[in-house]
Amino acid sequence: MKIAGDILSALFDEGFVKKAHGYSKFFDSWTDITAKNGIAAAAAHSRIKNVDKGVVLIEMDHPGWKQILQTKQTKLLNDFRIRFPDMDISGISLMLGKGESQPEERPEPPKIKKTPPPAENTENMESVASYIDAIKDEELREKLIKLGQTIKEA
């Protein structure tokens, strides 16, 4: 059985595979780089989204993390340059994730109507009993009957 690396090597030339491996290492380095700079927790709330023309785009999930990353931006940039000199990294751009919105734009949660439990009537109970009787799995049927009894007693 061939591993993925063997298949990729067969499809692409060695230079392309090395470059792809380098990009993979680059994107995977974020956890290590944040830890080295004393902000390891930031890795769980941010990620390297892209690198374009030497600028690393970092996306985070909250404005507070953006402020924290801004305080370490110079050190993060230096670490990227040291670890990946061939990428000619010249800057870091920080942005909030697209899913984030300002508090005034946040939609209100749906209102849940609390309906009182239906009054017990024999017609409703007979309907439920007919559904339970139609269940072929005996174990499930027994559990549903016990559940119904527990609900009645409550």
What does this protein structure show overall?
The protein is an alpha+beta fold. It has 2 domains: 4-105, GMP Synthetase, Chain A, domain 3; 122-153. Helix content is 51%, strand content 12%. The chain has 7 helices and 3 strands; from the N terminus they run H-H-H-E-E-H-H-E-H-H. It has a 3-stranded mixed beta sheet with strand order 1-2-3, with helices on one face. A hairpin with a 2-residue loop joins strand 1 and strand 2. The longest helix has 16 residues, at 138-153. The radius of gyration is 29 Å and the shape is elongated. Residues 100-104 have low confidence and may be disordered.
Number of distinct beta strands: 3
Roughly what percent helix? Answer: 40-55%
Strand order, main sheet: write it out. Answer: 1-2-3
The helix/strand class is alpha+beta
Task: State the low-pLDDT regions, or none.
Answer: 100-104
Described by the principal axes of the CA atoms, the overall outline is elongated
Radius of gyration, whole Å: 29 Å
**What is the mean pLDDT?**
78
Compact description:
The chain contains seven helices and three strands. It has 154 residues and is an alpha+beta fold. The chain folds into two domains: 4-105, DnaA, N-terminal domain (GMP Synthetase, Chain A, domain 3, 2-Layer Sandwich); 122-153.
Keywords summarizing the entry:
2 domains; GMP Synthetase, Chain A, domain 3; alpha+beta; 154 residues
